[in-house]
Amino acid sequence: MFLLKKFIAAMMFPAALSAELIVLGLVLMLAMRRRMLGRFCIGAGVALFLALSQNAVGDALLRPLESEFAALHDPLAAKTGRTGRNQPRWVVVLGGGHRTDSFIPLTSRLTGGSLGRLIEGIRLHRMLPDAMLLLSGGGPLGGTTEAGEMRRVALSLGMEGRKIAIEDRSRNTRDQAVLIRKIVGKDGFILVTSASHMPRAVMMFQKEGMDPLPAPVDHLVSKSPLPALMQFVPSSIALMKSRRAFYEYLALTFAKLRGHIE
C-alpha cells in the first residue's frame, strides 16, 4: 500500500502529468484516429510542462506554503513570546529522505532536504544546550533508517550521543506525530522540517494535541537578483518548485479526507 500511494502520487506530479497528456494525445491520433482531440492533448501537455517549469509559476504555487511560518532565528527569544508554550526541551527534526548506498559519503546519504533540516536542528540545539535533539524517520523500504543516518551525520559533526534521541519506526508524517507524542509528552518542542512541509506537519501534530514551535528550513522560494523577465524562462529548478507544491497540496487533500488534519 505504501508503494502504491507513492506511485499514484508520482503519476500526478507536473512532469508525469505532462507526459501522460502527450502520450494520450499520440494514442488518440495514431491508434484511434481522433486527430483533433489528440492534438489538443499534446498541446495541453506541452503547455502544462512549459508553464510549470517557469519560476513565476513555481513560486506562485509554493509561496503560500513556505510563507505560512516565519524562520526561527532565535529560539531563546521565541520561547518567552506570546505563544504560551513551555520552554523547548526538545528539538525535533523530521527526516526528508535518505539513500542506503554505503559507498557514497555519509553526508551524501541524506537528501538535500534531510541534510538542511538536520543542520538547522543542530544549530538550534546549540542555542538550547539543555534540550534533546530528537531525529525522526524510519526505513519504509527496509535497511537503514532516516533517523539512524541523521544520527550518524550529527555525531560526525560533533554532537554528543547522549544528547540525541531517535524515532525510527515512522513511515510518514502522520506516524511521526503519533510516535513523537509518546516521546515528548507535554514538553515544549521545536519542530524542524522543510518550509513547504511545515503547514501539514504542524496541523498533524496539533491534531495529536501538541503545540510545536515551527522552525521551517529548506526554502525554495526567495528573493532573486535576476531580472523579472528571467522568471519566465523554463528551468529545472522551477519545475522542482512546482513538483514540491503539487506534492504538498495533494498530501494536504488526502490528509483532510482521512481526518488526519482539521
Report the span from N to C terminus.
24 Å
Q: Class by helix and strand content? A: alpha/beta
Low-confidence stretches: none
What name does the CATH topology of the largest domain carry? Rossmann fold
Which geometry do the CA atoms define? Answer: elongated
Q: What share of the residues lie within helices?
A: 40-55%
Give the biggest beta sheet.
5 strands, parallel
Mean pLDDT figure: 90
Task: Please indicate the percent range of residues in DSSP E strands (runs of 2 or more).
Answer: 5-15%
What is the CATH superfamily label of the largest domain?
HUPs
Determine and state the CATH class of the largest domain. Answer: Alpha Beta
Q: Do you know the CATH architecture of the largest domain?
A: 3-Layer(aba) Sandwich
List strands and helices in order, with pairings.
Layout: H1 2-10, H2 14-30, H3 35-52, H4 55-66, H5 75-78, E1 88-94, H6 112-127, E2 132-136, H7 146-156, E3 164-167, H8 173-184, E4 188-194, H9 198-207, E5 213-217, H10 236-257
